[in-house]
Amino acid sequence: DAGVIQSPRHEVTEMGQEVTLRCKPISGHNSLFWYRQTMMRGLELLIYFNNNVPIDDSGMPEDRFSAKMPNASFSTLKIQPSEPRDSAVYFCASSYRGLNYGYTFGSGTRLTVV
Amino acid sequence: AQSVSQHNHHVILSEAASLELGCNYSYGGTVNLFWYVQYPGQHLQLLLKYFSGDPLVKGIKGFEAEFIKSKFSFNLRKPSVQWSDTAEYFCAVMSGSQGNLIFGKGTKLSVKP
Q1: How far is residue B22's CA from residue B45's CA, in Å, rounded to a whole number?
Q2: What is the DSSP letter of B42?
């Protein structure tokens, strides 16, 4: 298994631009999570999906952030417009809910907004 | 709401020293407990987990953790650290099998050669 795959690994963009982060979960996993990691705030859960349905998006910081999961093998996190304070590492993780295996994390996308 | 507290922000040790990283959680029901490790520039990887049974859990690379229910604690230990253990360590708790993982803020471990 290739694990959780995220793209791109690094993204540098100008303030005001739209940014789209992508995630392919492990095949067979039915839950997907988006986390943001910063020095100041640590690891924050932004949103998670069960069976492609968004369950809890209370961690999404603002309306500028949106996430979709059109099918079981793909999810996107979009920031529009981006701001410098969005600079962080964004991790995607997947799991099989109901089995206590914890989460498998992707390698993350390091976003820099200048 | 559930929360996870990791007492130390940054721990600095010399090689061969013993390690103990504290983790306390606030949740009264059945919990599953995890420790993740994040090596510099990498993603989080599972180090060990506790679901039930023996409260002393052994993980990879010589790490172990002890679940003490009365203290709501799940401290991570290693008898002798190596330079390659330099990383950030995250404690996490999941309520039952359907809950979400709640992470602590992490403890950065620096091991001096």
Answers
A1: 19
A2: S
pLDDT tens digit string along B67-110? 999 999 999 999 999 999 999 999 999 876 566 788 999 999 99
A90, A108 Cβ separation under 8 angstroms: yes
Chain A residue with CA closest to B91: the answer is A43
Look at the block and give the residue holding tokens 């708790």: B93
Q: Determine contact: B13 vs chain A, CB below 8 A.
A: no
Percent of chain A with pLDDT over 90: 78
Least confident of A34-43, A96-105, B69-78: A96-105
Taking CB atoms and an 8 Å limit, are B100 and A43 in contact across chains? no
Per-residue HEC secondary structure of chain A comes to CCCCEEECCEEEECCCCCEEEEEECCCCCCEEEEEEEECCCEEEEEEEEECCEEEECCCCCCCCEEEEEEECCEEEEEECCCCHHHCEEEEEEEECCCCCCCCEECCCEEEEEC
pLDDT at residue A88 is higher than 70: yes
- Contacts A–B by Cβ distance under 8 A: 48
Residues of chain A that touch chain B, judged by Cβ-Cβ distance less than 8 Å = 33, 42-43, 45, 48, 56, 91, 93, 97-108
Q: Compare all CA atoms of chain A with the CA of B42 and give the residue at the minimum distance.
A: A107
Residue A24 CA neighbour count, 13 Å, CB half: 7
Measured in whole angstroms, the distance separating CA A30 from the mean position of its chain's CA atoms is 15
Q: Is B86 exposed, middle or buried (0-12, 13-18, 19+ CB in 10 A)?
A: middle
Token pair, residue B65, equals 């953790």
